[in-house]
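Tokens for chain A. Residues wanted.
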């Protein structure tokens, strides 16, 4: 009788661990997808920043040349 109860408890624990494992796997996949999106967004923002920096530098250069005239 006692071993039957222990077996049921063990089965319940195994089921619980399987559920936890599935949830963690899903959460990991969600986090991985989010990380990829954030990395793509960061790359786009860096490109935009470089473009803006180049434009500002060009404006500064033009202003300096206008000052010299």
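Reply:
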């Amino acid at each position: 009788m006692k071993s039957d109860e222990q077996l049921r408890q063990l089965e319940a624990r195994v089921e619980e661990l399987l559920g936890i494992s599935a949830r963690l796997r899903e959460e990991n996949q969600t986090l991985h997808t989010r990380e990829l999106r954030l990395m793509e967004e960061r790359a786009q923002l860096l490109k935009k920043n470089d473009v803006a920096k180049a434009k500002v530098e060009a404006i500064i250069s033009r202003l300096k040349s206008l000052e010299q005239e």
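The first helix runs from residue 2 to 68. The chain has a mean pLDDT of 96.
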